[in-house]
Amino acid sequence: MPLSLALIGAGAMGRQHHDVIQREPQARLCAIADPRESGRALAQQAGVPGFSDHREMLHSARPDAVIIANPNTLHVGTALDCLAAGVPALIEKPIGVSLDDVTPLVEATRDSRTPLLLGHHRRHNPLIAKARELLATGLLGEMTNVTALWQLHKPDDYFAAPWRRQPGNGLLHTNLIHDLDLLRYLCGEVVAVQAMTSDRLRGLPYADTATVLLRFANGARGTLSASDSASAPWSWELTSHENPAYPPQQDQPCYLLAGTQGALALPQLKHWRYDGQAHWHHPLQAQQETSPTGSALARQLRHFIKVAQAKEAPLVAVEDAARTLALIDTIERAAASERSQAPVIPWEG
Ligand SMILES: NC(=O)c1ccc[n+]([C@@H]2O[C@H](COP(=O)([O-])OP(=O)(O)OC[C@H]3O[C@@H](n4cnc5c(N)ncnc54)[C@H](O)[C@@H]3O)[C@@H](O)[C@H]2O)c1
Q1: pLDDT of residue 340
Q2: Residue 222 CB coordination number (10 Å)
Q3: Ligand 1: distance of its center to the CA of 1 in Å?
């Protein structure tokens, strides 16, 4: 029996989820909640009831589970409504816009048996599973440096939706949250941050450009260099082939991980080691892994179905996603002070 799934938020991302649900035999779309006319039109086209209010939808359509893809500032309140109704939810990233915002949700999940999964879908990409496998073999030796790049040019009309121009919806919360989550997943926890940000290009109340220095618990040092106003090929979107809306730049990397024994470039899965003793005058041998294929969103949905059926624990639970969000808080504090700051997790005292 397929899981009956409702969609909350039927904009650009909601429509991607809609398409993935349509292709998944273990799921069946049962309702859409979105206050805009275009949401009701999508519901009509899909032959399911449309609602302007998700609470009314939860009450009337009684879905087995929901996918929340409304604006960032609404994620926490919507997720709390789903917990109150006992309906498992896949919540789009970011989990919220600040740690203060998400603390009530972190606390509510502790007392709840209703599972929540965060939509850090890149963790479900088979490329990332392969990268983790390679790292687990000790390919790098001791990790020394991490370089992450997210340099893209968003078109001006991307900012037409009023919510995208509000604080909590810019480069850091909407985009770098993905990169920071993957860096945590691949390289471990970040224990200190320094940052410089700039809002000079877009004139919006958040950074459009950022350079972040990271110290990982394993001792590695990292940089994340990002802009949503750069005409450059270095981003997960342009290099990973995950979403056909982005014309690919397949030979360009977006993450470079280096260690005492070797190095790894992603998403190419190309790695380097010395044959014998590491020495700058010896030839560094390159090896190219075959890239595994498979849709991250489809795999995430299959995982979510199992999470909703209590057959699997969420790969990205609320507290885990809140730790990634803690890095955004930390970057903002570090940028304001231009000094390094340690993450402060309020619910851990
Ligand atoms: N995982 C990813 O790669 C990815 C990519 C893009 C966006 N996102 C996330 O998805 C979310 C939506 O982004 P988007 O690009 O689709 O934005 P969007 O503006 O295209 O869509 C947002 C939709 O939410 C609707 N909405 C507003 N208030 C609502 C409410 N109270 N209840 C239900 N729906 C409501 C809007 O009418 C709109 O249709 C954001 O949190 C964003 O960060 C994730």
Answers
A1: 66
A2: 22
A3: 29
